[in-house]
Write a structure and sequence with these properties.
The complex is a heterodimer of chains A (116) and B (113). Chain A has 116 residues and is mainly β. In chain A, 0% of the residues lie in helices and 53% in strands. Chain A is globular. By secondary structure, chain B is mostly beta strands. In chain B, β7 and β8 form a beta hairpin. The chains are: A mainly beta (116), B mainly beta (113).
């Protein structure tokens, strides 16, 4: 299957700072990547759809100014949590779809963000 | 939009027995139904999927069935093993690569030795 890699796998930061999470498709080009957020013992909630070369599409209720998404190349999308607060602490997971467009999504390992 | 219901939320079975997890969906236009396994602290891993032109699909000990009329699909795991313990998520989408998945709430499967 396709490989999606996230970095860092975990990060601890102080309140008010910004944190960047990278998502890379290692063996394929991903025109579309998706960012999910998962709270403990809960399901994955789609935050935004990231399209290479264009602005991300955010789900209702997700602050686009707080969660900045950049998809500058076909293998890299980044999520920046700006001015992080403790309530932003969560497990962030990216996924990418294969160019064949048959719907298969492959997920990264996730990034655990803890804001102190 | 799509709504996916998943049951049960927790399932405990004896090692060697079978486990069944069920999901229903609301959007009749959905045509792609994957199942993901998520171990603690890791991202979800695709274990099997099915499309609406097929009623059943099997891969070794794992099988998925789909009833389009009733809008429900199920995951069947036979001869369960301790390493099957994890959280399983069903999902549904309209199948295009740019169309995000809608996930169920997950089932915590516990395999009792």
């Amino acid at each position: 299957g396709a490989v999606v890699s996230q970095h860092p796998s975990w990060v601890i930061c102080k309140s008010g700072t910004s944190v960047k999470i990278e998502c890379r498709s290692l063996d394929f080009q991903a025109t579309t990547m998706f960012w999910y957020r998962q709270f403990p013992k809960q399901s994955l909630m789609l935050m935004a759809t990231s399209n290479e070369g264009s602005k991300a599409t955010y789900e209702q209720g997700v602050e686009k100014d707080k969660f900045l998404i950049n998809h500058a190349s076909l293998t890299l999308s980044t999520l920046t949590v700006t001015s992080a607060h403790p309530e932003d602490s969560s497990f962030y997971i990216c996924s990418a779809s294969l160019p064949s467009g048959h719907g298969e999504l492959f997920f990264g390992e996730g990034s655990r963000l803890t804001v102190l | 939009g799509e709504n996916v219901e998943q049951h049960p939320s927790t399932l405990s079975v004896q090692e060697g027995d079978s486990a069944v997890i069920k999901c229903t969906y609301s959007d009749s236009a959905s045509n792609y139904f994957p199942w993901y396994k998520q171990e603690l602290g890791k991202g979800p891993q695709l274990i099997i999927d099915i499309r609406s032109n097929v009623g059943e699909k099997k891969d070794q000990r794992i099988a998925v069935t789909l009833n389009k009329t009733a809008k429900h699909f199920s995951l069947h795991i036979t001869e369960t093993q301790p390493e099957d313990s994890a959280v399983y998520f069903c999902a549904a989408s309209k199948g295009g690569g740019a169309d995000g998945l809608t996930f169920g709430k997950g089932t915590h499967l516990i395999i009792q030795p």
